[in-house]
Amino acid sequence: MQTVLITGASRGIGRAAAFAFAKAGYAVAVNYLSHGDAAEQVKNAILSEGGVAETFRADVADLSQTERMTAEIGRRLGRPSVLVANAGISAFGLAADMGDDEWNRLFAVNVRGVRNAVRCVLPDMIDKKSGKIVTVASVWGEVGASCEAAYSATKAAVIGYTRALAKELAPSGINVNCVSPGVIDTEMNARLTREERRAVMEEIPLGRFGTAEDVARAILFLASSAADYITGEVLGVNGGFGR
Ligand code: NAP
Questions:
Q1: List 26, 32, 151, 161, catalytic entry
Q2: Is there a domain that residue 61 lies in?
Q3: How confident is the model at residue 198 (pLDDT cuts 50, 70, 90)?
Q4: The CATH number of the domain where 42 resides is what?
Q5: What torsion, rounded to 10 degrees, do the Cα atoms 63, 41, 5, 9 define?
Q6: Which residues lie below 8 Å from residue 2, measured CB to CB, with a gap of 6+?
Q7: In this structure, is residue 242 part of a structural domain?
Q8: Torsion over CA of 28, 189, 208 and 24, rounded to 10 degrees?
Q9: Cα of 180 to ligand 1 centre, how many Å?
Q10: CA 32 / ligand 1 centre spacing (Å)
Q11: Distance between CA atoms of residues 52 and 194, nearest Å
Q12: Which of 11, 37, 92 to mutate to test the pocket of ligand 1 (most atoms within 8 A of CB)?
């Protein structure tokens, strides 16, 4: 049985990805930071369907916590052959108002967090000369969003990191791809008012917000053998938004 590590799998896109991978027969390492109860619910739902899952608390911004988690996953589930680097945070406001602390935390989680998780799974993937890494960026990392300049910058960094890693790791048999979601109906967008939601929806050609499951299906595809000849790609899951 293959093991997948999904960072930020207690809620939203990561949780939907956990269910999708479990259904596809993977043992799922459910990483979380602050919502342990939600992570346990994800695990229990997978177990109740006959799947295999364990929860692992770690702040992916912290390399030593991520290293400890990865070692523990190896002991309890087997070393991950797939990494979904999904954990992320957002921030909304004028660029001129953002202080250093908020800027640094965004980059620590969204960029260093991806690098930390990659760094921890890589040695084993390189040894085995196989592996799949899927990062989660954002349409804002491709086109930029007003009042989300720092967030957009972190996601552009994830896209650049993904494309470069894909080239570096291809000779080691490791595929590295990115999903780039548009506007997805998760708690990350809970701050939107009803009017704002309607206004955003009018900008989406397919006429609705994406679901976490829409994104999870794209992640599972990129991790599957159906995507063996795809690497360095940025797959938009956006209903046509931002194009
Ligand atoms: P969400 O509902 O807010 O969930 C975020 C997840 O990340 C939670 O499971 C959270 O765990 C985890 N997390 C946050 N910081 C972490 C850390 N330092 N270490 C470990 N886990 C951490 O967000 P989402 O909408 O599912 O977003 C998932 C990814 O998609 C993010 O990278 C986000 O930027 C990206 N994205 C989302 C949208 C959207 O419209 N929703 C659009 C484009 C891209 P705890 O709750 O346990 O702390």
A1: 151
A2: yes
A3: very high
A4: 3.40.50.720
A5: -70
A6: 25, 26, 27, 78, 81, 82
A7: no
A8: 0
A9: 13
A10: 9
A11: 38
A12: 11
Range of the domain at 102: 3-237
What are 109-145's pLDDT values in tens digits? Answer: 999 999 999 999 999 999 999 999 999 999 999 999 9
Q: What pairs with residue 28 in β-bridges?
A: 4, 53
Tell me if 192 CB under 6 Å of ligand 1. Answer: no
- Any catalytic annotation for residue 151? yes
Cβ of 113 less than 6 Å from ligand 1: yes
Residue 243: predicted pLDDT: 77
Residue 183, in any domain of the structure: yes
Q: Is residue 72 part of a domain?
A: yes
Establish whether residue 154 lines the binding site of ligand 1, counting it when its CB lies within 6 angstroms of any ligand atom: no
Which amino acid residue places its CA nearest to atom 44 of ligand 1? 138
CA–CA separation, 202 vs 239, rounded Å?
A: 12
Our count of domains for the chain comes to: 1
Q: How far apart are CA 215 and CA 17, in angstroms?
A: 8
- Residue closest via CA to ligand 1's atom 12 equals 8
Q: Is the CB of 7 under 6 A from ligand 1?
A: yes
Q: Could you give the angle at which helices 36-48 and 12-23 cross, rounded to 10 degrees?
A: 20
pLDDT, tens digit, for every residue of 25-83? 999 999 999 999 999 999 999 999 999 999 999 999 999 999 999 999 999 999 999 99
